Amino acid sequence: MSQSVKDTAEKIKRLEIQGARNVAIAAIKAIEASAIRTKTQSKTQFLNELSEAKNSLFASRETEPLMRNAIRWIVSQVESNTEKKTAKLARIVSGASAKFLENLEDSNEKIAEIGARRIRGNSVILTHCHSSTVTHVLRKAKQQGKRFEVVCTETRPVLQGRITAKEMLKLGIKTTMIVDSAVRYFMNDVDIVIVGADAITSEGNAINKIGTSAVALAAHEARTPFYVVSELLKFDPATTCGDYEGIEERNSDEIWKDAPNDLIIRNPAFDVTRRDYIHGIICEEGIVSPHTVMEIVNRKYPWIFQ
């Protein structure tokens, strides 16, 4: 296995690379670098090396369907090609990587345009954790001349909300940070909630940073619209067969390093927000109902189900 794949997998595990898009982009670049530097002499060896890299990256984080879909598609482009020379196979990987990244960027731009339309002037927006897609939506709304303010949860235990807060301040957006447990207290002052997603299930549920479902419940109680922004490529095809997207449990040290020996600490990284609490999924195809998301994914990206 190449050093680029090993290093990237370790960085993903240690959260040095985080956010579904960032993880997917890093994994794609690692796979491409590995293919370019390969010393294999046959297509079989080349595919074995790709498979080893794929498995290592898949194991780096449990809840990353965007990364998995990206790598599966890139590998499939090699498998389905009749070319046998490894140098040319490496170029196929490079071409497929570039195409996927281009599609990802195009989707991100479309989501930003669509999402920005949902931002009204003088509104208060609450977001949870850090999502580069959410940031892009808010940046686009700001560029359109809209005035609004953002409330960020700090997002314990790793405090990713600080990343969002810093980004908002750099954009010149009035920003307030609150502790996660204060969401219900402030929800009546919020006009709209916008969060990202790490995965979308076949039922239209959203898997995102732990605490997202509590934010959704508070929004539902206050009758505040709750939107998920996500590329459709974050759809997890395994959930169509009855499998559940795995929920990663992080090290207890993130919560309490010198905890008493007999204390049990649970630290799930994600939770599931049921579709009943989601007003809509803002994606590259528009604002869609969670109930119809699988049908839309099947129409736009049929290869995901193969």
Please supply descriptive tags for the structure shown above.
alpha/beta, Four Helix Bundle (Hemerythrin (Met), subunit A), Rossmann fold, 2 domains, seven-stranded mixed sheet, three-stranded antiparallel sheet, 10 helices, globular
CATH domain fold name of the largest domain: Rossmann fold
Number of E strands: 10
The CATH class of the largest domain, by name, is Alpha Beta
User: How many helical elements?
Assistant: 10
Largest sheet descriptor:
7 strands, mixed
Average pLDDT metric: 95
- Within the largest sheet, what's the order of strands? 3-2-1-4-7-9-10
Strand and helix order: HHHHHEHEHEHEEEHEEEEH
What distance lies between the first and last C-alpha atoms, to the nearest angstrom?
A: 27 Å
Principal-axis shape equals: globular
- CATH superfamily of the largest domain, by name, is Translation initiation factor eif-2b, domain 2
How large a portion of the residues is in β-strands, by DSSP E? 5-15%
* CATH level-two architecture of the largest domain: 3-Layer(aba) Sandwich
Oligomer: single chain
Classify the secondary structure makeup into a structural class.
alpha/beta
**Overall domain count:** 2
Detail the poorly predicted runs: none
